[in-house]
Predict the structure.
Amino acid sequence: MTDNMKKIIESTHGEYLSLLARLCNADGPSGYEDKIKDIIINEASPYADKLYIDRMGSVIVFKRGKIHPLRPIQFDAHMDEVGFIITAVTDEGYLKFESIGGVDAKILPAKRVRIGDSAIPGVISSTPVHMQKGNAAGSILSIKDMVIDFGAESREDALKYVSIGDHICFDSDSFLFGDDDSFFKGKALDDRLGCFLMLNALKEDLPYDTYFSFSVQEETGLRGAKTAAHQIKPYIGVAIDSTTAGDVDGVSGMNVVCRQGEGGVISLADGATVYEPEIVNKVMEAAKKNDIKVQYKLRATGGNNAAAMQRTASGVRVIALSAPARYIHSPSSTIKVSDIIEMQKLMTLLIDTLGEESYKKCN
């Protein structure tokens, strides 16, 4: 057990946050979600009335409630994270790679990575400032011009340990920081936090039948959620994800998007979906009535698995609940612990409020 994990377990929230740390610390870029899948199946199986893996690789869990809508609601969170894939090996033993999902090239030089299922350590190359000359000084390389150094002496030596097509993830541990350990840092909060919240929810007694889909390949095109929703055919679909909290230095006004410490984030619209006002208003009113912190997303940007669910079969009514996370798609995503707690409360309320809506309209 690492010192960071020990500190998390011994913190105020103890074992509650240790599951989130395990989910974040495990590697699972799009198409390579097996390690995350194993954790989820192990955690969900004792509480599931039905659990199966579909042909895309998503984990579908059904939990029976006290009331049985003909078309239950579906919660979805994606298992995958952004990462990289080996595309070539140079004669000198360096690894050429491409990104899986959206990664900002500016953050990559000199970052530690783990390579393949064996988690071989490596470092993304970086030219020391002392050796930068002319126009190269301060310039930003594109990913296609970067390499990974993992200590191989030659191409032949490198291929003893790695193969073309091996996945690569950031090498980054989870830990608590801030006053009273009020912040949690993890490399893949987008969207292991959503998986974490759903696992906690399905362990409770539920008022209505509910599906939980832990989907694959969101970061490369919302793929797993589309096939999952096609099988489930929910009346209402809820995407649980992360969104950019812009309450950082140098950002102001509407560009802040959302703030940490103000609870989960409800979208009115984004780059892929316009959310139904009736459902959004119902959720916001219920949250206010129950003193649960929640906020609107201030910019119609980005997108998530709600778009894939909405366009399934004859259509699904959708809503998105996102975590206000700083530094997403990096080794150091952060979330405020109080926001995790507020989002968990809101998820419980959503199962009740939206389950009732589904029962009224479909039975």
Observations:
- The chain is about 30% helix and 25% strand.
- The two ends are 50 Å apart (CA to CA).
